[in-house]
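Quick one, tokens below:
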């Protein structure tokens, strides 16, 4: 059905906003902050099909739900007229932020922050168009019913910008930071996978609510005690550990339980949020030459790619992307006072990305593996 239609779309988006922020030094060591941002989102997708004249009532392909007598449902692709395929978001709101900074001693700060943000869907996620990703081999279908996600962010961060003499081995320019964070999300945009006519599709869907919480630490150390050119080296590392979960819609839970894919607490991990991320880096910066070189090694833990869902062909289990490591390199050179040339090479190791189907009991079945490829870029910027 889907391949019989040639569907294009005209996508438009306009984001506008303004903000104000005030800082209040209530005590010598305590600063309060308040900010507010007015934000407007206008997005629209107007699809066009080669079947609008010959068969206008089924000219566009969208994901539809077939309700079941037991309260569950499954997905299938069906033809609809243009007015049912159009996607539109028109949203205006105030986003607030509060902060408190306590500087116990010079360089040692405790920060407590609260902020409100939003997350927008992309045209790819909204448009009633079937898209094939030639790198991952996935087929995606847009969902024109997506809405914005509303996010409340809570952060507690302890940071120590060392000074010479504070503690042995650390001095000016060195940093240690430890953070605790939490995000409460209304209408998070989640990825689901379902099968229809022997073809697996990925689709973005709003879930009722979700949350992310975790910790992060960061360490940065200059090696300026080394001789010669090695004195311009800096090493760093950061590690993030987090837990995430979303509430599965009630009707979806009924369908998953029928196919033995249900979960006891009615919640599952959030898509796109790995359990842990670790980064190591070494940089070389020569202030007089204007040269900066960096080598970065990143490790991402297992990550849910898309949640289980039911299609007309049956159930598709959760899809996980397995643990992955990557190496990136960059070098930049200033030319005069205004021009900078930057070369970047990403994913130099180009490891195979492994994906598995994972059932609630932990059983895994291989899905696919592929390489994302290396990326090279060269850029020139000027500052006046």
């Amino acid at each position: 059905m889907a391949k019989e239609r040639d569907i294009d779309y005209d996508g438009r988006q306009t984001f506008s906003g303004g903000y104000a922020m005030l800082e209040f030094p209530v005590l010598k060591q305590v600063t309060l902050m308040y900010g507010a941002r007015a934000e407007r989102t206008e997005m629209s997708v107007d699809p066009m099909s080669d079947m609008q004249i010959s068969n206008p009532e089924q000219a566009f392909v969208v994901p539809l739900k077939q309700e079941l007598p037991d309260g569950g449902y499954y997905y299938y692709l069906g033809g609809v007229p243009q007015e049912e395929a159009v996607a539109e978001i028109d949203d205006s709101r105030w986003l607030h932020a509060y902060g408190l900074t306590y500087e116990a001693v010079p360089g040692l700060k405790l920060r407590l922050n609260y902020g409100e943000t939003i997350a927008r869907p992309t045209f790819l996620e909204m448009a009633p168009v079937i898209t094939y990703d030639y790198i991952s081999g996935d087929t995606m279908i847009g969902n024109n019913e997506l809405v914005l996600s509303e996010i409340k962010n809570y952060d507690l961060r302890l940071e120590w910008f060392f000074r010479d003499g504070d503690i042995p081995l650390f001095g000016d320019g060195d940093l240690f930071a430890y953070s605790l964070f939490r995000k409460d999300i209304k209408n998070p945009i989640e990825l689901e996978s379902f099968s229809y006519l022997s073809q697996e599709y990925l689709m973005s869907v709003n879930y009722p609510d979700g949350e992310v919480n975790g910790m992060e630490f960061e360490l940065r150390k200059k090696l300026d005690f080394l001789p010669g050119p090695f004195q311009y080296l800096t090493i760093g590392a950061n590690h993030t550990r987090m837990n995430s979960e979303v509430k599965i819609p009630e009707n979806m839970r009924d369908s998953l339980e029928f196919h033995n894919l249900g979960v006891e607490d009615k919640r599952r991990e959030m898509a796109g949020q790995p359990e842990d991320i670790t980064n190591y880096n070494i940089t070389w910066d020569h202030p007089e030459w204007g040269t900066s070189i960096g080598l970065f090694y990143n490790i991402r833990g297992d990550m849910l790619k898309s949640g289980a869902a039911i299609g007309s062909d049956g159930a598709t289990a959760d899809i996980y992307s397995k643990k992955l490591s990557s190496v990136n390199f960059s070098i930049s050179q200033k030319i005069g006072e205004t021009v900078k040339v930057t070369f970047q090479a990403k994913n130099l190791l180009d490891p195979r990305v492994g994906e598995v189907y994972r059932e609630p009991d932990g059983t895994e079945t291989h899905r696919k593996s592929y390489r994302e490829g290396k990326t090279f870029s060269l850029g020139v910027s000027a500052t006046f």
